[in-house]
Design brief:
Keywords: TPR repeat. The longest helix has 18 residues. This protein has 27 helices and no strands. Among the domains are: 56 residues; 175 residues, Serine Threonine Protein Phosphatase 5, Tetratricopeptide repeat, CATH 1.25.40; 86 residues, Tetratricopeptide repeat domain (Serine Threonine Protein Phosphatase 5, Tetratricopeptide repeat, Alpha Horseshoe), CATH 1.25.40. The relative contact order is 0.06. The radius of gyration is 27 Å and the shape is elongated. It is mostly helical.
Length: 513
């Protein structure tokens, strides 16, 4: 005796077999109406329809809280004016406004926006805020393509075509013919339908219309609908309206998710201090909530306050000792604080937890090298190369192998490694810079100059190519170029003593002329 088909479909859904669930619901929906037994509240037809919309939504569902990519359009055509001279420690977009406590760029490399590289890749760490249109088009690439992220980022574009993939015969629901007002009066169907329109069809405008009608039908007392309206406003770039909806939802029902959405709005409006206060108020009501503590740690990290960030990540581990992001960030913090042995313990902990990827072995290899455990270094890098999923990851491993080669004094091997880095990733500014230094040692001045110019055009936020170019130009007697490059170096890293000394020398030269 087989299971009743609707129950079988529900069983598939619970086991996350969404394709089978959707197919079975389609068969139920194709039955003639006479064969469908009526139920007290729901007909089998309605139940199958609702279940199919949920299954199709789950296939493409992405959590909106963590997913946040700022595209070129949002960055450059941003109408939200921000203070050009923000008070120290109040802005994410102006890197010079941190409270200090962060390592210098000489020790810890920085991203294009002037923030130190984090120990864990998140959407917000993928790209900084470029200062010019040229930089915007040049820098924030998606992980695997050379196409810049646009406001309709790859994820949204995929979702728009998802209906064609999940249903070869065409879309399951024809949105243009839907009577949204009718569905808004059936709360149980309306919620499933909203999520389908928002996540699967990626039609924010229709989703907003449905949510507005449904919240009206619920006499503005249902917090869930207010959160959904806030999500739609956020996606449409209406951040202040989104803020009102999330606040209203919080007044009705205290939820961790709503706090996270509201904080996301404040971060997009470049108000990190307000977001921090919101998280701290949330922790009073939800003590020990990991996502809130983690949110505070991320903001401090983005504001370059690394010591406070590490403290909060340690608090995260007190609540959840298998939190990958916290372990990785504390590990990278120890590594850049010249404590590779302690960093090694954190990365080994990740390995014991079952994290098994190229980046982890890359980090293990570096920690072993700096902790003078040379027997493990090369085997870790070999494993990293074996696990690399794309050319960018392979390039990272070869670049680090180049560093190790410089450390052991084998400059020929280092030269080969940096060349292999560029074979895998032609935009690797650090490798161009290091190759130039090796060329300078060999006395190949012109090659070194060309490589340094490439490095500084690819990564204007790095001070090393500018400084090296200034030194090189000064050696060959081109003082004007040397002075220009030294000024760029000082702009990228104001506290660099060697740059300041070079500028001082050059000014003395100019005074003598």
């Amino acid at each position: 005796m087989g299971l009743e088909p609707l129950f079988q479909a529900w069983s598939y859904f619970r086991r996350r077999k969404f394709r089978e669930c959707s197919d079975l619901c389609s068969q139920l929906l194709e039955r003639p109406p006479g064969e469908q037994e009526p139920d007290a509240e729901y007909t089998v037809f309605q139940a199958a329809w609702s279940l199919k919309t949920r299954a199709l939504t789950e296939m493409v569902y992405v959590d909106e809280i963590d997913m946040d990519q700022e595209g070129i359009a949002e960055m450059i055509l941003d109408e939200n004016a921000i203070a050009q001279v923000a008070r120290p420690g109040t802005s994410l977009k102006l890197p010079g406004t941190s409270h200090g406590g962060g390592p210098s760029p000489a020790v810890r490399p920085v991203t294009q926006s002037g923030r130190p590289i984090t120990g864990f890749v998140r959407p917000s760490t993928q790209s900084g805020r470029p200062s010019t249109m040229e930089q915007a088009i040049k820098t924030p690439r998606t992980a695997l393509t050379a196409r810049p992220i646009t406001s309709a980022s790859g994820r949204y574009v995929r979702l728009g075509t998802a209906s064609m993939i999940t249903n070869p015969d065409g879309p399951f629901i024809n949105l243009s013919r839907l009577n949204l007002a009718k569905y808004a009066q059936k709360p149980k169907l309306a919620k499933a339908l909203f999520e389908y329109i928002f996540h699967h069809e990626d039609d924010v405008k229709n989703a907003l219309d449905l949510a507005a009608l449904a919240t009206e039908h619920a006499q503005f007392k249902d917090w869930w609908w207010k959160v959904q309206i806030g999500k739609c406003y956020y996606r449409l770039g209406l951040y202040r309206e989104a803020e009102k909806q999330f606040k209203s939802a919080l007044n009705q029902q205290d939820m961790v998710d709503t706090i996270l959405y509201l904080a996301k709005v404040y971060l997009r409006l470049d108000q990190p201090v307000t977001a921090l206060n919101l998280f701290k108020q949330g922790l009073d009501r939800f003590p020990g909530e990991v996502t809130l503590i983690c949110g505070i740690a991320r903001i401090y990290e983005e504001m370059n306050n690394i010591s406070l960030s590490a403290e909060y990540y340690k608090d995260v581990l007190k609540q959840d000792n298998t939190h990958v992001e916290a372990i990785a960030c504390i590990g990278s913090n120890h590594f850049y604080s010249d404590q590779p042995e302690i960093a090694l313990r954190f990365y080994r902990r990740l390995l014991q937890m079952g994290v098994y990827n190229c980046q982890l072995f890359n980090n293990l290899g570096l920690c072993c090298f700096y902790a003078q455990q040379y027997d493990m270094t090369l085997s870790s890098f070999e494993r990293a190369l074996f696990l690399a999923e794309n050319e960018e990851e392979t390039a990272d491993v070869w670049y680090n192998l180049g560093h190790v080669s410089v450390g052991i004094g084998d400059l020929n091997l280092a030269y080969q490694c940096f060349k292999l880095t560029l074979v895998n990733n032609n935009d690797y500014a650090e490798a161009y810079n290091n190759l130039a230094v090796l060329e300078m040692r060999k006395g190949h001045i012109e090659q070194a100059r060309a490589l340094l110019q490439t490095a500084s055009s690819l990564a204007p936020h790095m001070y090393e190519p500018h400084f090296n170019f200034a030194i090189l130009s000064e050696k060959v007697g081109d003082l004007q170029r040397s002075y220009t490059a030294a000024q760029k170096s000082e702009e990228a890293f104001p506290g660099h003593v060697d740059t300041q000394q070079l500028i001082k020398q050059l000014k003395q030269h100019f005074a003598m002329l």
